[in-house]
């Protein structure tokens, strides 16, 4: 028998594998509600964000359904869509914070006279899309990539572009469908504006901090609890 390549399994995939096995073995029957996210994290000895990513993966696979305000229910025994071992959306946000915080500081040192104007136009585009009830992804994307461009480093631009575009993955799209709303997007616009103000003042430390706060809050918005009746999740 030939050797098979060994692929390291991301933590959220390991959690998803365990939950999938429990569902397929009948431990969690069709139509039943899974334990709250908090309880799953405690029983498995992992963080709630990792459980969150695992549950989103199982939802994309068609095994569970997240019903906001009601809980997480088993709706299938066999996966209708298998996912690869891609990084989870919350893991990506944490990576972006490390990289983009420093890039915001670099942008604050930039002498590019068009930078602040371009960033403000990205915000106006986001606001127009929000008002039109359209997902403001294009303006959001251009904001983050424009800051990366101020570094004059094509490798860093490519990294930021790749990480941002991961939000188009099935996992990120499913997570966004639960938590992205007009109010959360307006919060993101305000956070972007704080980053721009720091860049306009040529204050690297404030720019670094403002970008870190923005991505921390993005992580928090996607990590908000799923509340089940009579119990905080």
Please, could you describe this protein's structure?
With 233 residues, this protein is mainly alpha-helical. Helices cover 63% and strands 3% of the residues. The protein has a two-stranded antiparallel ribbon. A hairpin with a 3-residue loop joins strand 1 (64-67) and strand 2 (71-74). The termini are far apart.
CATH-defined topology of the largest domain = Four Helix Bundle (Hemerythrin (Met), subunit A)
Number of helices: 10
> β content, as a range?
under 5%
Instruction: Identify the CATH class of the largest domain.
Output: Mainly Alpha
Features:
233 residues, Arc Repressor Mutant, subunit A, 2 domains, 2 strands, elongated, disordered C terminus
Set out the fold topology.
Elements: H1 11-24, H2 37-44, H3 48-61, E1 64-67, E2 71-74, H4 89-108, H5 115-131, H6 137-149, H7 154-165, H8 170-179, H9 182-200, H10 204-222
Antiparallel strand pairs: 1-2
Helix pairs in contact: 1-3, 2-3, 3-8, 4-6, 4-7, 4-9, 4-10, 5-6, 5-9, 6-7, 9-10
Quick rundown:
Helix content is 63%, strand content 3%. With 233 residues, it is mostly helical. The chain has 2 domains: 11-74, Winged helix-like DNA-binding domain superfamily/Winged helix DNA-binding domain (Arc Repressor Mutant, subunit A, Orthogonal Bundle), CATH 1.10.10; 89-222, GntR ligand-binding domain-like (Four Helix Bundle (Hemerythrin (Met), subunit A)), CATH 1.20.120.530.
């Amino acid at each position: 028998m030939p050797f098979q390549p060994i692929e390291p399994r991301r933590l959220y995939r390991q959690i998803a594998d365990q939950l999938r096995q429990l569902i397929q073995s009948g431990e969690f029957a069709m139509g039943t509600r899974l334990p709250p996210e908090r309880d799953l994290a405690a029983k498995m000895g992992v963080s709630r964000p990792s459980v969150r990513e695992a549950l989103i993966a199982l939802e994309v696979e068609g095994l569970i359904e997240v019903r906001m305000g009601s809980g997480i229910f088993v709706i299938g025994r066999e996966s209708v869509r298998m996912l690869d071992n891609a990084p989870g959306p919350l893991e990506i946000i944490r990576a972006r914070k490390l990289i983009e915080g420093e890039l915001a500081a670099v942008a604050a040192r930039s002498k590019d006279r068009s930078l602040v104007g371009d960033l403000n136009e990205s915000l106006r585009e986001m606001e127009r899309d929000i008002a039109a009830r359209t997902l403001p992804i294009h303006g959001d994307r251009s904001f983050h990539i424009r800051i990366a461009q101020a570094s004059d480093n094509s490798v860093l631009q490519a990294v930021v572009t790749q990480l941002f575009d991961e939000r188009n993955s099935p996992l990120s799209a499913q997570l966004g469908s639960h938590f992205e709303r007009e109010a959360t997007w307006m919060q993101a616009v305000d956070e972007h504006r704080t980053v721009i103000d720091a860049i306009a003042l040529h204050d690297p430390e404030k720019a670094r901090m403002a970008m870190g706060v923005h991505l921390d809050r993005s992580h928090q918005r996607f990590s908000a609890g799923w509340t089940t009746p009579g119990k905080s999740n």
